[in-house]
Amino acid sequence: MDAAVRSEHALAASIEETLSGAMDSCTTALAPSRLAQAMRYAVFPGGHRLRPRLCLAVAASCGETNLRAAHAAAAAIELLHCASLVHDDLPCFDDAEKRRGKLSVHKAFGERIAVLTGDALIVLAFQSLTRGALHAPDRLGALIEIVAASVGMPSGIVAGQARECEPHVALASYHLEKTGALFAAATMAGAAASGRTAGPWRMLGERLGLAYQVADDIRDAAGNPEELGKPIGRDLALGRPSAAQELGLAGAIARLDELVAEAAESIPECDGVAGLRSLIQIEAKRFLPASLVRRAA
Question: What is the DSSP string of 215-247?
């Protein structure tokens, strides 16, 4: 096993360890058992953990060696992402039967527990962020503000979800809020956890978030549900804005490539800029199955 692979495995293990610690803090013997089970079910096993990986990569690129605050922020962002998936799958929104290749939380545990699972994960995110960043009190305020803004109103993921309830939805606003906001939180929190000014790192996260959402639109329009582990065709069925519908499959893939390039160029000056650009290119290749890229070629 070469050094790059060992480093990749170590990073993945560190993220899972931080998430497990956060979960252990609340799913104790005193907790309602079904809610505790549902929370673990919603978080483990996870997907690619793109957002926490991005947060930690930015912190490391900024030269930070004590990554405790960055790990706390990364875990909080992933917990919020998992919460958003639980709520997004509910019958009142997507009514999705599967997520990550298994039954969605409301299908496995019932709708009432699913609503509470999302709520509890949101609260746990801020509990774990506060506990994990207490050693750096001068950075904690900025981290809480960044993470909270990415979730709430007027332009966080809650606002993005609410766009689905509006009669008319602008694709750009919808994508920025529903997906770009949490990616921007990841890059900005990584910088803030390192004592850097967070603002210059927003564009990197937003561009990557938009790229990921475009890829998600493509997967929904033309992907394989068995390969993706969730239903497809939901955007069309529910009348939601979609890059694949507006631009066509080839056009959407071209837009995805454009956004990834913009993300790489937007990285502020830092010690690890070259490595971060390389990481972005590697991660972007995972956004779409190779079969979809070949179909659009």
Answer: HHHHHHHH--HHHHTS---HHHHHT---HHHHH
What's the rounded Cα separation, in Å, for the pair 293 and 64? 37
CA 57 and chain centroid, separation: 14
Which sequence spans correspond to the domains of the chain? Answer: 3-296
Question: What is the Cα–Cα distance from 248 to 57, expressed in whole angstroms?
Answer: 33
CA distance 134 to 144: 12
Give the span between the Cα atoms of 19 and 57, in whole angstroms. Answer: 17
Task: Record the pTM.
Answer: 0.92
What does the pLDDT read at residue 242? 86
Residue 37 has which token pair?
Answer: 């089970």
Ranges of the chain with pLDDT below 70: 1-6, 289-297
**What was the pLDDT predicted at 1?**
47
- Please give the CATH superfamily to which domain 3-296 belongs: Farnesyl Diphosphate Synthase (1.10.600.10)
The span from the first CA to the last CA of the chain, in angstroms, equals 34
